[in-house]
Every structure is written in C-alpha cells, then in structure tokens.
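Let us practice reading a record.
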Amino acid sequence: MAIPERMIICCQSFRAKGDPKGLCHKQTEGFMQYIEEEIIDRGLDALVVATTCLKQCESGPILVVQPENWWFKGVNSEEIIDAILDGLEDGEACAEYLAA
C-alpha cells in the first residue's frame, strides 16, 4: 500500500482520559464521512484521520492538512469543507479559513 500524498487531520476533541470534551466533536457530525467521500469523488490522494484535541478550541472545529501544515479554523459546514478542498485541488490554502 502506498503512502498517501496528504493527511487531513480532523480534531475530534478527545482528551487523555478518553472522554470527548471541547468544541470540535460537537460541531462535526458526519464531518469525516463527508470529507472522505469528497476526497474520493475529487480523486485526491489523502488519508482522513481523527485526532485528539489540537488545543485550538477557541477557533474550532479545526482541520489540518499535512504535509503543507495548513490549519483551518471554524470548519463546521460542507460549504467550508468544499472551499478548503477546492483550494487543495488548486494547490493553495483557502485563505479565508486559515488559522493565524
């Protein structure tokens, strides 16, 4: 199996004790499923993964694209995900949602 070109990391707010806390997991119902389907439809070479809390709760939900290290904030709708993936297809970060 080949290593994917990119990894899309989705904060799911899980903390050390395993209890989901924070903001991101509460606002991302169906989030990862939608991203995965869009990646397949667009033919992008990326792996979607959930992660523990990324400690950016004030800006959440957070999505990170690696290896570019693009951190996106306020990713809470399909429209925002589409804008981020459109930028990814063009090789550019969607500046509107980049975290500072």
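A brief commentary: The helical segments are 31-42, 78-90.
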